Amino acid sequence: MKRSWTWCIVILLASAAFAADGKTVSYKSGDEMVQAVLYTPSGKAPFPAVIVIHEWWGLNDWVKDQASKLADQGYVALAVDLYRGKVAKTPDEAHEIMRGVPQDRAKRDLGAAFDFLASQPNVKKDRIGAIGWCMGGGYALDVALQEPTLAADVINYGHLATDTDALKKVNAPILGLFGGQDRGITPDDVHKFEATMKQLSKKIDVKIYDDAGHAFENSNNKDGYRPADAADAWQRTVDFLAATLKK
User: Fold this and answer.
1) What is the pTM assigned to this prediction?
2) What are phi and psi of 229, to 5 degrees?
3) CATH number at residue 122
4) Which of 6, 35, 82, 166 is packed most tightly, with the most Cβ within 10 A?
């Protein structure tokens, strides 16, 4: 599947509100050991769980904060690190690191993340979802394509597929959140994806924010952050995950 990330907009890498402490965990991906940050909710286990997939910047504080917020909502949240510890500080560096990640390795890491969560005694194995933003949004779709028992999938302005044979493999309900002014993932792309999914009788809910561009949910995106749209997108995410993973 062709990917093009040159459209990722410039985001100032200022720190977001510091995420609540998570626990660094290691698990096997192929012949490698990889690390992620695990956030566990309070309350009585078992819990539903979510794979949290970072933007092209890497596993930075903003992504960790999203995982922490998901834990506050009652999910075991696993913030994966597809960059093996690297975090970009400039757009050029982000682009370079991202291009250096083999797609097959990233997909393998995500499959390993799913298996790791499914192996945890405090996780409901049939209630595992995925969420990602930008690059991570595209990889969130890849998780749905490769994990037939994924229970929910949230794509935030990530790359899309329209190939019918590929999308037939998706079983998870999908929530897609996109910017109407996004020059990389255009409304036409989104409508084609939505139409194909509906033709296949897949469960999908799409929202396009007309005045928003790419990465409008990230408060570090000083020029493109849209607070009202971001708040609405987060509420839609909370409601969608509750309806799919807590039912």
Assistant:
1) 0.91
2) -65, -40
3) 3.40.50.1820
4) 82
